[in-house]
Every structure is written in C-alpha cells, then in structure tokens.
C-alpha cells in the first residue's frame, strides 16, 4: 500500500464525506484525498451518464466542466474496458486527448485512470489522476482501486439523490 495511505485517515475521511449530501460538496473532498494519497498534481472525477453515453466533471482541477463521449480519451476507454489504465507518456498514446491540454494550457505528463463501480458492477464514474512527479505505479493503482470501492456507495447515493431532486424540481415547475 502507498505510504501516504492509512486506514485511520481513510476512516476519518469516510465519516466526513458522509456529511456531504451533494456531489458538489463531496467531489472536491474526494479529489483532494486522492491527490494526497498518490502525490498527483491533479485529480478529475468523471461521472458517467449511460443515457447520453457521456462522462462529465463537476470538478476538474483548474478548469471548467469537461464533457467527453464514452468512446473518447483515456477516461472513455476506462469506462469501456472497465479496468484501470496507467499511462506514463500520454502524448504517444493514441487514446489521449491533447485538445484538453491545448484548451487549458496544462501539460499532462502521466495519467492513472480508475473506474468506479456501483453496487451492480456498472461503471458510474472514473478517477483521473494526473502528473505524479515520479510517475504512477501499480501500487498507486491498487490504492485507488481500494479507494474507488470505498467511495462508490457515496457516489451512487449522491447521484440517485440528485436525480430524485432534479425530478422533483421538474414536477414543481
């Protein structure tokens, strides 16, 4: 396990996370924790909407919302393959979308992309960690798979809660 990872820190994190009802409250907390335990510079959390076959972020460090089709980019391939993808030289990987770097001015040096599953083993999201100074390792992947399992219940409930709230709001209008 990653040296920055501790079960006590994870338990403390989980208790705090459960007090965050919306994705807008919980995702920044999840992202910060993921960066702390891996040493990544950035972390984007993509939520997958199977109805429109798109991935979107409410949180992408340093930039506005990103929307990507499930067939595109490393994040899309993570959904399609349903397994982690580690890329330590993205500019030579055909799946990489350099247009996002071009738009933001950020230079992606390495990527760890980890699927997040719901209780029925459907992909509901993806962590995408960027730019670990020493490059991502299989140990990072193991830590993030464990972390993805840990927070998946929260994400599944938060997504359902937001869907219900949006449905209620449409009925009121």
Q: How many structural domains does the protein architecture include?
A: 1
> How big is the Rg?
16 Å
The order of strands across the largest sheet is: 3-2-1-6-5-4
**Helix proportion of residues, in percent?**
40-55%
Span of the ends, CA to CA:
50 Å
CATH topology: Beta-Lactamase
Q: Please count the helical segments.
A: 5
What would you call the structural class? Answer: alpha+beta
Specify the CATH architecture. Answer: 2-Layer Sandwich
List low-confidence stretches: 167-173
Shape: globular
CATH class: Alpha Beta
Fraction in beta strands:
15-25%
Largest sheet: 6 strands, antiparallel
Under CATH, the homologous superfamily reads: GAF domain
Number of strands: 6
Secondary-structure element series: HHEEEHEHEEH
| Overall average pLDDT | 84
Which terms summarize this structure?
single chain; 173 residues; alpha+beta; Beta-Lactamase; 6-stranded antiparallel beta sheet; 5 helices; 6 strands; globular; disordered C terminus
Describe the overall structure:
This protein is α+β, with helices and mostly antiparallel strands and 173 residues long. 45% of the residues lie in helices and 21% in strands. The chain is built from five helices and six strands, in the order H-H-E-E-E-H-E-H-E-E-H. It has helices spanning 7-17, 23-38, 73-81, 98-104, 138-172; strands spanning 42-49, 54-60, 67-69, 85-87, 111-117, 123-130. A hairpin with a 4-residue loop joins strand 1 (42-49) and strand 2. The relative contact order is 0.17.
């Amino acid at each position: 396990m990653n040296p920055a990872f501790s079960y006590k820190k994870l338990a403390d994190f989980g208790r705090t996370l459960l007090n965050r009802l919306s994705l807008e409250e919980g995702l920044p907390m999840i992202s910060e924790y993921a960066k702390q335990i891996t040493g990544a510079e950035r972390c984007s959390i993509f939520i997958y909407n199977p109805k429109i076959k798109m991935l979107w972020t409410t949180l992408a460090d340093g930039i506005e919302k990103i929307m990507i089709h499930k067939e595109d980019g490393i994040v899309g391939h993570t959904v399609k393959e349903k397994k982690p993808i580690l890329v330590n030289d993205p500019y030579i990987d055909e799946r990489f979308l350099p247009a996002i770097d071009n738009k933001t001015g950020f230079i992606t040096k390495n990527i760890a992309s980890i699927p997040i599953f719901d209780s029925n083993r459907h992909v509901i999201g993806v962590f995408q960690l960027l730019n670990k100074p020493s490059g991502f390792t299989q140990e990072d992947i193991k830590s993030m798979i464990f972390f993805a399992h840990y927070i998946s219940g929260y994400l599944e409930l938060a997504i359902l809660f937001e869907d219900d709230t949006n449905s209620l709001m449409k009925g009121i209008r």
